[in-house]
Specification:
single chain, 145 residues, Rossmann fold, 6 helices, elongated
Length: 145
């Protein structure tokens, strides 16, 4: 892991203290992407915590003359509607929300059918539900050289 690749959470996160929601969700991720690409040996790909941040990131990259995906790949998360309405269409990671909800309901029903709940057992319950990579236009092999 390269510490210089980590973007300060305050650069890209909306918080209740943010005065301007629009700026927090569009300007700051774009600025963070620009700064990220100014470091020596910048990354060839950026994974964003959601699709809206990824779109803002692409905007910032384009403002400094970088091409997505020719110069840098960008991946979003959540497979939101915006991922298909933006150019280039966004490669994203889709959470299987229906499967997550069904598994949660099944677990809750199972727990409610018992006489008591052992907190130790409850803390040890794990279920892996794999996300799905939706490959679109914002990713490519790293540029050579």
């Amino acid at each position: 892991m390269h510490p210089e690749w980590i973007v300060d959470i305050h650069d890209a996160l909306y918080t209740p203290q943010s005065l301007d929601f629009q700026q927090a969700w569009t300007v700051k991720p774009a600025q963070a992407a620009k700064r990220l690409m100014q470091i020596p040996n910048p990354p060839t790909a950026i994974l964003c915590s959601n699709d809206a941040f990824a779109v803002a990131c692409i905007k910032g990259l384009m403002q400094v003359g970088l091409r997505v995906p020719a110069d840098v790949s960008v991946i979003g998360y959540n497979n939101e509607l915006i991922s298909t309405l933006f150019y280039p269409e966004l490669t994203t990671i889709r959470q299987p929300l229906e499967e997550i909800a069904a598994a949660s309901i099944d677990l809750l029903r199972s727990l409610l059918s018992r006489d008591g709940i052992d907190r130790t057992e409850l803390a040890s319950i794990r279920q892996i539900i794999r996300p799905e990579l939706i490959e679109r236009e914002s990713c490519a092999p790293p540029p050579s050289g």
